[in-house]
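Hey, I'm writing a tutorial for new members on how sequence and structure tokens pair up, and I'd like a real worked example in the thread rather than a made-up one. If someone can provide the structure for the chain below, I'll link this post from the tutorial.
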Amino acid sequence: MKEPIEFRLSGDRVFSEREKAINQLHNNRGYGEVIEGKLFLSLVEAAYLLEKGKIRVLDGDRELSLEELFDLGRKRDEDFDVKFLVYRDLRERGYIVKSGLKFGSHYRVYRRGSEHSDWLVWVVRENAKLSPNDITARIRVAHGVRKSMVMAVVDEDGDVVYYRIEWVKF
């Protein structure tokens, strides 16, 4: 097994300046964002890669456990756990998953090797109360950028079911 790549905690993400991180994780697998020669990962991406044994995360000189990283994520986002479950499921299916915040969703999802995302994924808990206006607004954005809107519903057992939501013209 390869030695895990070292990342450092920085606010609500982690980063590595190592070229190995950029080549192996970003260039070959589509993780994170490269800014000024550093690879930055969201806490969800970091948790996934830590769970897989691909990275180590340091806060100062102390190595963080997966549970500690989850605790940090939960402090910043009460839905961290369900977003992680959807992220992991999509990655395990072979998709590239990026933030979709500027599109009013949680994730943009790409087929491996594609330059353009096909789907905008919005993560919701099974018992969430949704307003029709919220759903309509998300569909409009997805339609406007030529993507399919997908709702990822996570149940109490952590199972994920995907629903594509689209306009229907009669």
